[in-house]
Write a structure and sequence with these properties.
ten-stranded mixed beta sheet, Glyco_trans_20, 16 strands, globular, single chain, Trehalose 6-phosphate synthase, six-stranded parallel beta sheet, alpha/beta
Amino acid sequence: MRRLVVVSNRVGPLHDGGKAGGLAVGLGDALRTRGGIWFGWSGEKSDEGTFGPLKIEDHDKVRLATIDLTPEDAEEFYGGYANQTLWPLLHYRLDLANFDQRYENAYRRVNERMAARLTPQLQPGDMVWVHDYHYIVLGERLRESGFTGPLAYFLHVPFPSPEIMTALPNSQSIVRSLTAYDVIGFQTDSDRRNFARYVVEELGGRELPNDELEAYGRTFRASTFPIGIDTQSFAEFAVSDEAQEHEAQLKVLLRDRHQIIGVDRLDYSKGIPERFRGFERLLEDYPENRGRVSLMQVAPLSRSDLEAYSDLRSELEELAGHINGAFSALDWVPIRIMTRGFTRRALAGIYRASRVGLVTPLRDGMNLVAKEYVAAQNPDDPGVLVLSRFAGAVKEMPEALIVNPYDTASLARALQQALNMSREERKERWQAMFDRISKGTAQAWCDAILKALEERADKKVQVRSA
Ligand code: ADP
C-alpha cells in the first residue's frame, strides 16, 4: 500500500476528540491506515516563514508537518489571493474579487516554496493529494522538482463557468497547472462540467471517455466525488449527554414553539441576509407564526479583518435588529445571532432541537451543515431541511425542500410548508436523505479518490512498460 502525503491549508486535527470535521475524519482514517504526512501552514507567522524550520508532530505512522508564513505571505497569499481573489471568484462574486498582481505573485511564491519544502520529505512510492484553492499550482511545482508519482487534487469549493473563471487575470496559466495532476476531484457534476468546458474552450484540450481529459499532451481524470460527513458518529453525537443537555435547555426555552436553525461561518457566500429576509417574510405573510417560531443563527466570525466580512456582520446585525424591533413580543424574540463556537456534540443537540434546518447559500461547494442537520435528527420525529439549490449538497438531498434564496416569497412559503409538514412526510423525506448520507460518508469519499488515483497510477505504469 502506498504512503499518503496530504497537502492542505491547515493541518489536522488527526484524533477526533469530538472536534474534527468531515475532512479531518476522512483524511485521518486514510493516513492512519496507510501511514504518511499531512503538510500545511501552521497558522503562525514568523520572519523566516516558509524558510523556517518544519514543525513536526508524529502520531504513530502519521506525521503532521507544518510551517509558518511570513507576515507578508500571510497577508498577500492567504488574506489576499486565497481569500480576496479566489474565494469570491470561485463563488461567482466578481463584484467582491480583488485582482491585485501582488497577491498573485505571493500565491505563486508560496506554492513554489511549499512544494520545495515538501519535496525532500517524499519517498519513492508515495502518493500526494493536494487540497483546495490555496494550492492549485503546487502540483505543477512538484512535477518540476522531479516528482513523478501519483498526484491528486480536490477542489472543495465550486468551479465556476468559464464565463466567470476567465475574469481571473492569467486564468489560463492557473487552470493549466491543474493538468499536472493525475486525478482532479470536484464536488458536483456541474463543477466538473465547468472545468471540462474550460479545458476544451480555453486550453484547447479535448474530452476523452471515462472522465478523462487531454491538454498539452497530458491526460488526466476529472471526476465528481461529493464529500460527506462521518454520519454514524454525528448521529451518535446527537444522543450524547452533552447533546441532550443542549437539546433539553433549548426545549425549556422554546416550550411548545418551533426553532429554525442556521449554522454557517459568517461568510457572504452563505446567503444569511437572504435567510433573514425569508424569515421576516414568513412572519409577514403567515402571521400565525409570530410568537410561535424563532430563528437561531449560529455564525462564528470568519476572516473578520476583511472589509467584505465586517460589512456583512454589520448588515446582519442591522437586519436582525430591524426584524426584532418590528416583531418582538414580551416573551419572544424572532432572531438570535450567536457568533460563538460549539463542540460537535453540542451542535448536534442544537440541530436536533430545531424543527427546521435552514441552509441558504448563494453558492457553496457542498455544505456540510445540511448533512449534519439530517444526521442529528431524531428518526421518530425528524425536522425538515430547507436547502438552497445553489449548495452542492442539493444533488444528494433532493428530498429537502429546495429553495432559491433570492426569491424571498418562495423561501417564506417553504418555511411555512416545513413548519406544517406531517410527521409521516418528515420521516419519509428524512429517511431517504439519511440513507444516502450514510453511504456517502467522508471515509467513502476519501477511499473513492484514492482508489481512482491508484488505478491511474497502475495504468501509467502499464503504459510505460508496454
Ligand atoms: P464551510 O466549509 O464553507 O465553512 P460547511 O458547511 O461545509 O461550510 O462546513 C462548516 C463546518 O463548520 C461544519 O462542519 C459546521 O458544523 C462547522 N461549524 C459552523 N459553525 C460552527 C460553530 N459555531 N461551532 C462549531 N462548529 C461550527
